[in-house]
């Protein structure tokens, strides 16, 4: 069925209690929650939603978009207010804008920036668990910063992807990749010192950021060296994916820049 009215809705969410964006059987997902809320808001009227991409279980998004297809034009201010009123507290709608019929959110040019928040040493307060990962061992942050910089540029990411398809393109470009102190998100129950890996690019493979972060953790612990990372990004690597997959709760889709 064709829908004559198309919109792009911007949301943000805490992913800790959801099993990712994509609908799945017997688990709570973000797309399922969005559609249930839309069904109530539009009183059962026919509509359709399409997310800009998948996120893993427990991964949060400071900025995310979904495309909304409707049979009738809506008052955007009313929708934003009523939608938020009925969404659960861990999901918030930020904006809505009309798009032309035929607009495709998936193929629309975009840049994504992911953040991974972490600390190390003394175990963190349990309230910090939905936002950042704590590593019990001491980490060499300075060498981890050097390792993060190695991911920047054009490389072959066979080893930083799980369950690729026959058509998966492993040669990818990362615009920037760095580790800095976390000054963006603070709370009284956060550890005194925490850090964030910031990765920016046009697109990423399945589990790519978490596998990169897991490798950097091993580097910081002294179990790997910088040469290992350099070799892992070459075209002639062994193409066996990394086993060091960092926990998902520290990962956040920080921003998506759409070029409409």
Walk me through this protein's architecture:
With 260 residues, the chain is of the alpha+beta class. It has 2 domains: 5-99, Pseudouridine synthase I, catalytic domain, N-terminal subdomain (Alpha-Beta Plaits, 2-Layer Sandwich), CATH 3.30.70.580; 113-258, 2-Layer Sandwich (Alpha-Beta Plaits). The protein has 5 helices and 10 strands; from the N terminus they run βαββαβββαβββααβ. Strands 1, 2, 3, 4, 5, 6, 7, 8, 9 and 10 form a 10-stranded mixed β-sheet that branches. Strand 2 (47-51) and strand 3 (60-70) form a beta hairpin. The longest helix is centred in the last third of the chain and has 14 residues, at 208-221. It is globular and about 60 Å long. The two termini are 24 Å apart. The mean pLDDT is 93.
SSE inventory with pairings:
Layout: E1 5-13, H1 30-41, E2 47-51, E3 60-70, H2 76-86, E4 91-99, E5 110-120, E6 133-135, H3 141-150, E7 153-156, E8 171-181, E9 195-201, H4 208-221, H5 226-232, E10 251-258
Parallel strand pairs: 3-10, 5-6
Antiparallel strand pairs: 1-3, 1-4, 2-3, 5-9, 5-10, 7-8, 8-9
Helix pairs in contact: 1-2, 3-4
Structural class: alpha+beta
Q: From the alpha carbons, calculate the radius of gyration and give it in angstroms.
A: 20 Å
CATH topology of the largest domain: Alpha-Beta Plaits
Broad shape: globular
Assign the CATH superfamily of the largest domain.
Pseudouridine synthase I, catalytic domain, C-terminal subdomain
Number of helices: 5
Helix content: 10-25%
How would a textbook summarize the main sheet? Answer: 10 strands, mixed
User: How many distinct domains?
Assistant: 2
- Encode the helix/strand succession as letters: EHEEHEEEHEEEHHE
The average pLDDT value, as a whole number, equals 93
Based on the structure given, which CATH architecture of the largest domain is correct?
A: 2-Layer Sandwich
End-to-end CA span? 24 Å
The proportion of strand residues reads 25-35%
């Amino acid at each position: 069925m064709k829908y004559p009215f198309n919109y792009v809705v911007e949301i943000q969410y805490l992913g800790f209690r959801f099993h990712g964006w994509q609908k799945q059987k017997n688990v709570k997902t973000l797309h399922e929650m969005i559609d249930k809320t839309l069904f109530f808001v539009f009183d059962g009227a026919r509509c359709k939603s399409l997310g800009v991409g998948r996120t893993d279980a427990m991964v949060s998004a400071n900025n995310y978009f979904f495309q909304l297809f409707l049979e009738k034009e809506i008052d955007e201010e009313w929708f934003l207010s009523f939608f938020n009123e009925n969404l659960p507290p861990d999901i918030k709608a930020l904006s809505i804008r009309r798009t032309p019929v035929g607009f495709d959110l998936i193929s629309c040019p975009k840049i994504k920036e992911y953040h991974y928040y972490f600390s190390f040493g003394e175990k963190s307060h349990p309230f910090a668990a939905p936002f950042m990962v704590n590593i019990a061992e001491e980490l060499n942050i300075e060498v981890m910063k050097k390792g993060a910089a190695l991911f920047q540029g054009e490389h072959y990411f066979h080893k930083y992807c799980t369950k690729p398809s026959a058509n998966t393109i492993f040669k990818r470009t990362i615009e920037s990749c760095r580790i800095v102190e976390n000054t963006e998100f603070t709370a009284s129950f956060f550890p005194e010192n925490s850090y964030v890996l910031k990765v920016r690019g046009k697109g990423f493979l399945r589990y790519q950021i978490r596998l990169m972060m897991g490798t950097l953790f091993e580097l910081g612990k002294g179990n790997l060296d910088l040469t290992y990372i350099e070799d892992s990004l070459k075209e002639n690597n062994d193409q066996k994916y990394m086993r060091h997959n960092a926990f998902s709760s520290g990962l956040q889709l920080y921003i998506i820049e759409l070029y409409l």
